[in-house]
């Protein structure tokens, strides 16, 4: 599990995937989302720029990210 400390009001999904090194690049992050590999609060998320806020839980593969 990765605990991600939010510095502003929100972070966009593809930015989070890059910031946590789950995606090598923005293109790789977009592909992960397009392919339905990312869940936001237990639902598949297809919005690349979904705004993630404190308390959100993102899962991809066996990795869980909690926004704090």
Number of helices: 2
Helix percent reads 10-25%
> DSSP strand (E) fraction?
25-35%
Proper CATH architecture:
Roll
Total strands: the figure is: 7
The CATH class turns out to be Alpha Beta
Q: What's the CATH H-level homologous superfamily?
A: RNA-binding S4 domain
Secondary structure category: alpha+beta
Q: What series of H and E elements makes up the topology?
A: EEHHEEEEE
CATH fold field value: Structural Genomics Hypothetical 15.5 Kd Protein In mrcA-pckA Intergenic Region, Chain A
Instruction: Specify Rg, calculated over alpha carbons.
Output: 10 Å
How would you describe this protein?
The protein contains two helices and seven strands, in the order ββααβββββ. It has a five-stranded mixed β-sheet with strand order 1-7-6-3-4, with no helix packed on it. A two-stranded antiparallel ribbon has the order 2-5. 24% of the residues lie in helices and 31% in strands. It has 68 residues and is an alpha+beta fold. The chain starts with a strand and ends with a strand. A hairpin with a 2-residue loop joins strand 6 and strand 7. It has one domain (2-67): Structural Genomics Hypothetical 15.5 Kd Protein In mrcA-pckA Intergenic Region, Chain A.
